[in-house]
Amino acid sequence: VQLQASGGGLVLPGGxxxxxxxxxxxTFSSYAMGWFRQAPGKxxxxxxxxxxxxxxxxxxDSVKGRFTISRDNANNTLYLQMNRLKxxxxxxxxxAARGGSWYGYQSYEYKYWGQGTxxxxxx
Length: 123
Description:
Largest sheet: 7 strands, mixed
Radius of gyration: 13 Å
Shape: globular
Structural class: mainly beta
Strand content: over 45%
Order of helices and strands: EEEEEEEEEEE
């Protein structure tokens, strides 16, 4: 499966962005999906995961209550709605696909990756 992330940009603290990840190739609904991010000088970290059906999700603690992961299997698209953004959310955000029904928390568990989209939260 090929993944193309988009929707990043520059936003003020407290603002919102919605990231999208368009999938093509193999059946999107066969894959659990995740969003990861990597800030300069830091390791890539798990942000959110969603099961193949969309029925199960999880988030890293720092984004719980602010970010929402969702998917539209009919249109082969994954989303990350980010609200109340903080400067510490600044990073390159990546979408990733993992074979099977359940998401993982480690980057090595994902086989396919999008190219990343930059999110900058700054005044």
